[in-house]
Design brief:
With 566 residues, the chain is α+β, with helices and mostly antiparallel strands. The protein is built from eight helices and 26 strands.
Length: 566
């Protein structure tokens, strides 16, 4: 762990990595190449938060950069992986290897300048990474590594978040894991429902390039500097090699220097050791107007060529080609190979649709119309994740101000940016699990909520996600009752102390269509959190990131002109 930053103006990249909870006695093991604290050095901008925190600084040298003078993606992945694994080992108390890394989106670039990386731990050893002024937000998972001392994977002790921020991240990490587990099924379902015709066209009069001409294969020998102290190849090193061959494949299509914009989930299927040969294969799967997807595969084999190759990893990388003004260039089309090439071509289109759906979900703002997002099978997992994580993030806000209190019911408000949110809570003599069961079924809400007229179940997505058509008693500015199409996502506690969660947000469905007798309303982020106080008592809180339709309700109650909040 690097405890201080060596002051070299405009050439230091700082990393800060920690798990949510580590061993009670922090163990410091000096790693190869680790820098000791230098007297008089600049203090780290990341103060230690818990025993699993790892801090290090890296000097960005010319050979770390690409042709544009920017830090290469492969090098950044190696540094992030090193910091994350060290943090994971502090929690596990034994050697760890990278198991997976969630999608990475490269938003900005790092030139030879001072930049920061912050990685935080999460559920099941997940390490959140945010490197270089938010250049590559990512989340990686680590698992214990088989070795002579630990022949099997070790069962990890539960993570215990200490701060409110860590508790929120710990809870949201469970949603990311849920999304990872069903990613393949989401893609498969989208392909089944999509037309099978393969689109072949030309752009700007150019002829489609055969995908076979972009194929690249490289072999790397795993040497001791590429591996950890147990002899397992660093995950970051494998990712860096994969990024290299993917870049070459992309350049064969565009005949220019491509820029990496996104990486689909890395998932390590098995380890490789010192002495192994890694065969890295890459090919352009599909090329869209301004971007292309490159598929990369890594296989390993030992000295005996007769032994079959082991599939180590696969990933999908999205590249762009920038002109002199930094704008994406138009790319030529790709002609897929018959058979397997056509399958990869269609899957690339499906992954692009999923990425666009996710981007649309995240980018919806209160000032934009509509607030709801389209619902279909391709974005259901991410929309459910966004629904729950948005509510948990709202719950974790620190600046709630008590606005009114009456009959042991408290109303709080939160003002930030363009949003006004409110929270209403009280303690009740009912078990938390029973309150959770009642509040998560919107069909019964009209029994106790005067502004609900009815709620009809439109679609049972799965055991924890439902879509309802809700009719409200509240009149709109058009003097008509409002109706809503609402996604309800319910989650049980991840660990002791966590609340039961019922999250709501508006979605768009073709049925039921908007009716002339109603004004179609929307909710951006709302829901219930229920905390256990005893076997027969709980605290129930309702949250709402108020849309314009709720503002009159909030202001009249805050001003004391109404007590409907009770």
């Amino acid at each position: 762990m690097v405890k201080g930053n060596i002051v070299v103006p405009e050439e230091i990249l700082s990393f800060c990595c920690n798990g949510l909870q580590g061993s009670t006695s922090p163990l410091h093991v000096q790693e190869p190449g680790e820098r000791e604290e230098v007297p008089g050095a600049m203090a780290s901008p990341f103060p230690p938060r818990n025993p699993t925190e790892v801090q290090m600084s890296q000097l960005v040298l010319p050979y770390h950069t690409n042709h544009r003078g920017e830090l290469s993606t492969g090098q950044l992945l190696k540094w992030i992986d090193t910091a994350a694994c060290l943090s994971a080992e502090r929690h596990a108390g034994c050697p760890c290897v990278t198991a997976s890394m969630d999608d990475i989106y490269f938003e900005h670039t790092i030139r030879r300048s001072v930049a920061g990386s912050n990685t935080r731990g999460g559920m099941y050893g997940a390490i959140g990474a945010c490197a270089g002024a938010r250049r590559s937000p990512a989340f990686s998972s680590s698992r214990t590594a088989p070795c002579p001392c630990h022949p099997l994977q070790v069962k990890l002790k539960p993570l215990t978040p200490q701060t409110e921020e860590e508790k929120t991240e710990h809870s949201i990490a469970a949603e990311r894991r849920r999304m990872r587990l069903v990613h393949k099924d989401t893609l498969k379902d989208l392909l089944i429902r999509s037309p099978r015709e393969t689109e072949l066209e030309t752009r700007d009069g150019s002829v489609a390039v055969p995908a076979e001409k972009t194929r690249v294969e490289s072999v790397e020998l795993v040497l001791p500097p590429h591996a950890n102290h147990q002899g397992n190849t660093f995950g970051g090193q494998i990712m860096a090699w994969m990024e290299n061959v993917a870049t070459i494949a992309a350049s064969r299509l565009c005949h220019a220097h491509p820029t990496l914009r996104a990486i689909e989930m890395f998932h390590f299927r098995g380890p490789s050791q010192v002495g192994d040969r890694l065969v890295l294969k890459a090919i352009v799967n599909n090329a869209f107007k301004n971007s292309m997807e490159v598929g990369v595969c890594a296989e390993a084999y030992g000295q005996e060529m007769s032994i079959s190759r082991r599939h180590i990893n696969s990933a999908f990388m999205t590249f762009e080609v920038l002109d002199q003004e930094g704008r994406p260039r138009t790319l030529p089309m790709v002609a897929p190979e018959p058979g397997d090439g056509e399958r990869r071509y269609r899957e690339a289109s499906a992954r692009k649709k999923i990425r666009l759906d996710r981007k649309y979900v995240v980018s919806c703002k209160q000032t934009e119309v509509p607030l709801s997002v389209p619902w279909d099978q391709s974005n259901k997992v991410y929309l459910s994740y966004n629904n729950v994580s948005a509510l948990k993030t709202l719950v974790a806000k620190a600046n709630w101000a008590l606005a009114r209190e009456k009959e042991k019911v408290r109303m709080y408000t939160l003002e930030e940016d363009k949003f006004l949110s409110f929270r209403i809570d009280r303690s009740v003599r009912i078990a938390a699990s029973q309150a959770f069961s009642l509040l998560s079924d919107l069909r019964r809400r009209h029994e106790w909520a005067s502004h609900y007229a009815s709620a009809e179940l439109v679609q049972q997505v799965d055991d924890d996600d439902m879509i309802y058509h809700v009719v409200s008693q509240t009149l709109s500015h058009e003097n008509k009752p409002q109706d809503f199409i609402i996604l309800a996502s319910r989650r049980k506690p991840c660990s002791k102390g966590d609340p039961y969660v019922v999250a709501f947000r508006s979605v768009t469905l073709p049925t039921p269509p908007a009716s002339a007798g109603f004004t179609r309303g929307e909710t951006l982020c709302s829901g219930f959190c229920i905390w256990t106080e005893s076997d027969e008592a709980s605290k129930v809180a309702y949250y709402n990131q108020a849309t314009p339709g709720y503002l009159n309700y909030v202001t009249t109650n805050v001003a004391g002109l109404s007590s409907n909040f009770c």
